[in-house]
Input
Amino acid sequence: MTRAIDLSLRHFTHTHGDIFVIGSWISIEGRHRPCLILIRTGDENNEHCIPCVMTSDKAWIWSEAIGDPRQAAQMAAGFIQALRLNEHDQRNFIRIASIIHDHLGDLLHIPPYTAPQSEVVAEILVTDQRTGKTREVEIRDDV
Output
C-alpha cells in the first residue's frame, strides 16, 4: 500500500510547545484522506523527522464514549517514541492524548482534498515525425 504525506499541504496548524500539529491529507493508493500529523516543533525539514499520522477513520479510538483505550495507548506510545519524548514519563501519554483530543473536532472538519491549481507556464507544439501531425501541449508549474 502506497502512502504519502506532504507537510506543506495544511488545512490548519497549531503549536503545543515542542509538538507541532498539522491538519492535512494523506494520500493512500491515490486517494487523499484527512489526517492529523504531529511532529516536533521545528523538525519539518529535519531528516530525522518522523511524522505521527492519525487518519480521520481512527478518530473514534480517542472518543471517551466509544473509544478503545488500549488502541489509543498503543498509538500514543508509538507517537511518544517517534517524537523522541520520554516514554517512561506518564505525563507524555496524557499530553499526547490531550493534544489529540483538542484537535479531534478540527480533524473531522477538514474538507475533502482539492488539488492546488496549477498555472500554464509554457506551450509546446509537438510534431509526430512519422505522420506530420501536430498537437499543442501545456507545461504546468506543478510538474
